Amino acid sequence: MYAQDSNVFVSGGCDTVCRLWDLRAKYPEIMSFHGHESDINAVDFLQGGSLQSFVSGSDDSTLRLYDIRGCEQMQLYEDIKAVSSVTSVASSKSG
């Protein structure tokens, strides 16, 4: 998912890691975010005009909110009754 700055994007994959990339950098992968226990299916920057946080969804049935400035997970969203994957995520300006 690209940020408003089209040179920066976040990705997630089968290795359970979300990665922040900047295509202008000599080494484009600039940060890694760990926490998921299974494949990551979806990522989205939070709306609001600045590149500060993003959310990810995974086959481990969780959503995770990451802070880019602090390079850390801020929140884990899970329901112990959920048995299916999170296959899409989206954010809005209103929350």
Give a concise summary.
The protein is an all-beta fold and 95 residues long.
What does this structure look like?
A hairpin with a 5-residue loop joins strand 1 and strand 2 (about 20). The chain has strands at about 10, 20, 30-35, 40-45, 55-60, 60-65, 70-80. The protein has about 100 residues and is mostly beta strands. The strands form 2 sheets. A 4-stranded antiparallel beta sheet has the order 4-5-6-7, with no helix packed on it. The protein has a 3-stranded antiparallel beta sheet with strand order 1-2-3, with no helix packed on it. The radius of gyration is 13 Å and the shape is globular.
> What Rg is obtained from the alpha carbons, in whole angstroms?
13 Å
Helical content band: under 10%
Distance between the termini: 18 Å
Number of strands: 7
DSSP helical segment count = 0
The global form is: globular
β-sheet strand percentage:
35-45%
Low-confidence stretches: none
